[in-house]
Amino acid sequence: MVASPFGKEGQKMSGLRKDFLWGGATAANQCEGGYLSGGKGLGTVDVIPHGEYRKAIMKGEMHYKDLPEDAYYPSHEAIDMYGNYKEDIALFAEMGFKCYRFSFAWSRIFPTGKELEPNEEGLKFYEDFIDELLKYNIEPVVTICHFDLPLTLVEEYGSWRSRQVIDAYVRYCEAIFKRFNGKVKYWMTFNEINMLMHLPFMGAGIMFEEGDNKLQVQYQAAHNELVASALATKLAHDINPENKVGCMLAAGDYYPYSCKPEDVFAALGKDRENYFFIDVQSRGEYPNYAKKFLEHNNIQIEMGQEDEKILRENTVDFIAFSYYSSRVVSADPTVGEPKLGNAFAGIKNPHLPESEWGWQIDPLGLRITMNTLYDRYQKPLFIVENGLGAVDTLKEDGTVDDDYRIAYLEAHIKAMIEAVEEDGVDLLGYTPWGCIDLVSASTGEMKKRYGFIYVDKDNAGNGDLKRYKKKSFYWYKKIIENNGL
């Protein structure tokens, strides 16, 4: 095992830790493929198509059974890491990765989610995968549930609407904590748990029915996920006290559009909407602002007798988060120019450039967000997603000149280091998103590339999946060698 950043050898008064966890991040639903191989069952991502219906499905506003027969599902093959993981891990090792953040496909281990015993073939695949990482001294960092749960749990229980899914999740966690005990130490319970409020089906398998009170459904599902997360944290610590369990949110501070107090208060409200989940996971109880919100909106959360105790006694060890951009909000809906971007709606920031997909580029915003999170929770942070989605051109000689990606990452790494050196933020590691090209979660595209490694595949699924090293591959290798200096 790689030495832990927790403990004496990890303490450093300035600069990044000597054992800082440099690496990269992916998710099974975006890179693994093999969607029915090895006894795997259908997962939610397997019914999210590329194209015009994608957003409606992700929002839970359209049923996947109403999709046309010729719909294309990019997750079914993705980049076939299922069949190519040894080659890919060797490339990560060549870059010098200290860790690799990835996820398990829940339905590969419990095909319907209802089984009492796991699928051995699925467990064996991940055991071989983890052993390959450890062979190169790469620390596995596992996301237990990354926008991906067995479709049967959606169809029979309504996904996280039901407490029965809590039981299924804990059964899944017990299987993986026991099987990989001593091999995996770093766990995250849910990826971007706050995405439930923005893309409910993609984030948590929630589909809305006619007459639903959407907020009631979302917050009940959120409560059930939070209880499941706390139970998983307890189980991980009971099985091995050395296990470190983190929560994970889609982060990025909201800026007020102006210094009008109304805009400042609107930004505070938007931040709270996102921090709600992490407040509970890190502090162990519902914050007062959340209680008042539920009361004002007449939302009644069904709680088990032990839920409050479970939440209070099983808080997380570290705060993991994704950061791509900051956001802007105004109390006046007629003010400002709406911007493109990801699932978080907002106003265009006139002071910032933006990517080809309208994501505003704000390196200082990363430092601001890190300070906000560390001041709020005072637990170690872990940047587990950060990166630039862009159109790359593969040249005839098999190279990709992605200087724009290098510039983006260099600026964000500089801001990250300043948050540690100048502000005293405790940071465990940094895993840029999509270290190898994969299917975009938001758009289902391949042309929206993030990786240091180019994969030959296009939006329609054409290509031979051959891997090529980009210019950023060699740049990031040097960054890791010099611990960011």
TrEMBL record:
EC number per UniProt: 3.2.1.86
Top EC class for this record: hydrolase
Cellular-component GO terms for this entry: cytosol
InterPro entries noted in UniProt: GH, GH_1_N_CS, Glyco_hydro_1, Glyco_hydro_1_AS
Catalytic residue list: 385
Keywords for this protein: Glycosidase, Hydrolase
One GO molecular-function entry: 6-phospho-beta-glucosidase activity
UniProt record, GO biological process: carbohydrate catabolic process
Pfam family for this entry, one: Glyco_hydro_1
PROSITE patterns (alphabetical): GLYCOSYL_HYDROL_F1_1 (PS00572), GLYCOSYL_HYDROL_F1_2 (PS00653)
PANTHER family according to UniProt: 6-PHOSPHO-BETA-GLUCOSIDASE (PTHR10353:SF296), GLYCOSYL HYDROLASE (PTHR10353)
Family statement: Belongs to the glycosyl hydrolase 1 family.
Protein name: 6-phospho-beta-glucosidase
Species per Swiss-Prot/TrEMBL record: Cellulosilyticum lentocellum (strain ATCC 49066 / DSM 5427 / NCIMB 11756 / RHM5) (Clostridium lentocellum)
